[in-house]
Design goal:
By secondary structure, the chain is an alpha+beta fold. The chain contains 2 helices and 6 strands. The protein is globular, with a radius of gyration of 13 Å.
């Protein structure tokens, strides 16, 4: 997969995770999270995989726009995605570490930081 194709693919996955309310079945998002997933939230919370799954399945919709999306291939099976997310409340800087395991991309780590 070319880097430009990977960027498009990971952008689509990020959008799906950021807007789980758009999914016909939110449970379809669960395999996108690696078993050892962890998130440092923009609120300061730290979430593990199960907490993230609970949020995906039960969270309320939020209007957000993703921009400045960029992917850096760190290794053949590891990619770093960085972007900005803007909501009605704030803009945050985001970074996601994606790993390709068994032929599918999974989110291993995510961090959101409120922009100044």
């Amino acid at each position: 997969m070319k880097v430009s194709e990977l960027q498009d693919h990971l952008y689509t996955l990020e959008e799906r995770l950021f807007h789980p309310d758009r999914e016909p079945h939110r449970a379809d998002l669960i395999p996108l999270l690696a078993d050892d997933f962890q998130e440092f939230c923009s609120s300061g919370r730290i979430m593990n995989r199960q907490q993230a799954i609970d949020a995906l399945l039960n969270g309320t919709p939020r209007a957000a726009t993703l921009s400045y999306f960029y992917v850096t291939l760190l290794a053949p099976n590891v990619a770093l995605a960085t972007y900005h997310a803007a909501t009605a409340l704030h803009t945050s800087h985001r970074s996601s570490l994606w790993v390709n395991r068994a032929g599918r991309w999974q989110l291993l780590f995510h961090q959101g930081t409120i922009a100044a």
